[in-house]
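User: I'm writing a tutorial on reading structure tokens. Could you give me a worked example: one chain, its sequence, then its tokens, then a sentence or two explaining what the tokens reveal?
Assistant: Sure. Here is the example chain.
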Amino acid sequence: MKRIILAVFYFYAFVEADNDSRLPNKCEVCKFLTVELRDALQRSGRSKEVLEVGDVLDTGMRRRKIKYNTSETRLMEAVDNICERILQYSVHAERPGSLRYAKGSSQTMTTLKNLVHKGVKVDLGLPYELWDEPSLEVTDMKKQCETMLEQYEEVVEDWYFHHQDHELEDFLCRSHVLGASEKECLQEVWKGAEEVASDGRKMHDVGEL
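And here are its predicted structure tokens:
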């Protein structure tokens, strides 16, 4: 029983600490919108495809050819369902600020699942098969992403066609979406193995209880 209580307490300690303020803020939404759009564009960036656009007129004029890499089609395909990809994120409650949002299972959840696999009964108040469903925070970020994308659609198009020499995050978030006091999360950078090791030591202590 002690192991169950401590494991669950550890999990909720992070969540409840910021419960009143932990819906994603505008900075976090913009940050991950640009991450997903940049990744979508990078996946299609090496295409050598040439598109033919326009109607063939009775005069016999040929359709205009444009490179896919600079086409509106590429942008539309990248933007399509981009906010749906936010649902692939999980809340890594053991991390600070915007770093709490990342793809893959969190260290906390991984440890709790390991406890379950070892036969420990862990009660989080919902069925085990729902543990990996998108959280309230993530679904809220997805909704905010859709609203932001609609509101700043022309800004994204302006960047794509005229300003790709600027970082998308700088152009969209810093210059258009966020006020001077709203940009803090853009400075938060995941340190990788160093932070994983720190989180891992904390969770290991729970697993040993």
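What the tokens reveal: The mean pLDDT is 77. The first strand starts at residue 50 and ends at 53.
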